[in-house]
Design a protein that fits this description.
Elements lengths: L3 H21 L3 H20 L12 H32 L1 H6 L4 H28 L10 H26 L9 H12 L12 H8 L2 H13 L15 H28 L3 H15 L1
Helix pairs in contact: 1-5, 2-3, 2-5, 3-5, 3-6, 3-7, 3-9, 5-6, 6-9, 6-10, 9-10
Amino acid sequence: MPSEARRVAVRAGLVRGWRETRYSLTDPTDLVWFFAFPVIYAVVLLFMRGSTVPGTDFELGAMVLPSIVGMTIAFGGLAGPANQIAMDREDGTLLRAKATPDGMIGYLVGKTVMFSLGTLVSLMVLAIPAVTVADELRIDGRTALLLPVLFVAGMVATVPMSVALGSLFRSSAQSMLIFLASMVLISVSGIFYPITALPTWLQWVGQAFPFYWLGLGTRSAMLPSDLVTAEIGDSWRTLEMFGVLGIWAVVGFAIAPAVLRRMARRQSGSVVAAARERVMAQGY
């Protein structure tokens, strides 16, 4: 049974995550992060109107949209938290969390809530072009059940791992490496074209990361069943999908608090002050 201190930390994390989300939605920089990519995807999908998948009469935008939904979930969980953790180390947020019983657990829960809600906002923007291809998509009870489950599974599978990776960087600028790595992984994850078109070894690389599995899951939820022939093994592989995402979630929540505590032990008031001075010097 979890200790009372841990339960308090989790509740505090939930409240913190909600408050940080509300603040982010009033911050111009965060708003750009939430809306920039969804707006770009929306414009691209709108320009696809009238185009069809070669050899079929199926809308090209309808084919791509589900994969973009899955990619947005994975990207929101992997790219944002790593940058945030580096910033929180520089401004002393992690140092304050360290001083609280089970503070790192609460911190991790808060970041998961914050980036989950932020990603949800981004997904809502994608609903605009989705209306134009809705008649091509499969929208039924399975869709209504699977998409929310995929969203939650995607967030818990990616945010803790991103926090753990972000804690390894010494500055927020270095955390952009995860952004670049995500771009590379997207290209081999079957988001914009079938993964079966790639060499076998690249297919295995893509299947090791959440981008592929979340894209597969959203395609299985939103596309007609006969399009499964474009997938590996002519199957949506739902059990395998949740299995891989589950592994990422378990590993992430297991290592992230430990890595955060280890990083926080190296923090002190003087270290934070020095980091602030470096950031201010760079700004000027």
